[in-house]
Fold this protein.
Amino acid sequence: MSEQQLEAVYALIEKSEDALVRLCQDLIQFPTINPPGNDYQPCVEYIGNRLKNSGFAVEYVRAYGAPGDSAEYPRYNVIARYETGRKGPCVHFNSHIDVVETGDGWTRDPFAAQLEDGKIYGRGACDMKGGLAASIIAVEALIKSGVELKGAIEISGTADEESGGLGGVAYLAEKGYFSKDRVDHVIIPEPLNVDRVCLGHRGVWWAEIETHGHIAHGSMPFLGDCAVRHMGAVVAEFEDKLYPAMAARHTKMPVVPEGAKQSTLNINSIHGGQDEIERDDSAGLPAPCVPDSCRMIIDRRFLMEEELDQVKGEVTGILDNLETSREGFKYEIRDMLEVIPSMTDQDAPVVAATSQAIEEILGKTPDMVCSPGTYDQKHIDRIGNLKDCIAYGPGILELAHQPDEYVEVDAMINSAKVMALSAYKLLTNSY
């Protein structure tokens, strides 16, 4: 592609700034909160209708039977494919459409998609509807420019990444949508900053631990056995043994931010005994009972240097020791999700093409990073067996899931240019 043709593509992207802003705002205004999985169908139909108008063949795929899929909350995905008519590879841009709950602390309406001082605010603006919008604008500009392309371009909007991706990319990968005979290169526009290439992510193990006790009257707790106190002993052992052990381990993976270079454990929730009572609930006071069950969800992130069996064994070892040393201690543990760490080789085609595009457009050598949390690369790698996959997109990683989340318009413009050039290089084998 000549310099003149390149400039034509970039000019189209720059002229599309207002359209890019509107597209991002429209996407944010679909409150696709997961769980439970709101508004997936209208959101993917909006994406599909737009891409049909740009010459894409569009397919909607519902993940029947996936966790969370129901008549009320169907797990819909959209896959759009543009055929150039010339033999060549396929470049796929994958973005998830779901967002996490809003939480407290917002100073703006989370779904108004307010534009202020060059930033679009809203839940999902950064993670990752800004990236989805930028990838659509990038591909549309590449097609409209008239530059000769080979192969095919795909764009997908997928469900449930925030809850593990089982109703989205995992389901599609199982159905062959990310197989090597269909797709060659994948770029996921997650918010990792416009001057970084994300090679992969740490591993994750989600599990539920339940401690058991014996119910009794709350005025005579000595006649019962408090499951919450047993769980307190679990937390104390984690504090004394597991957290210090994890803090001593560090990875050679280029994980950002710095604190994520070590193993981590988040206690996602603890609940024991009677159902929680809302603060303004006038239904009555708590019942005087000793809790006979307490449940804790743990979110363990681990490194490429750690084996999953070792990760699980540390936790079950603590629980087994308590079972022998603490009177009345009984537990169960249930796996909820497990993902092995993933990292693409730095000399892979998609890494080379995107790195070169960043250098040409932004004038700097990109940092190679890995994400502290998993994203849908795990399914593309594990199920699709497709290794040529990275995350690259606009947005500041640390803003994800925060109140007043935003994406910068300039970052979307720059990332759209990078994605357009990366796609061209991959489609024409010119990286």
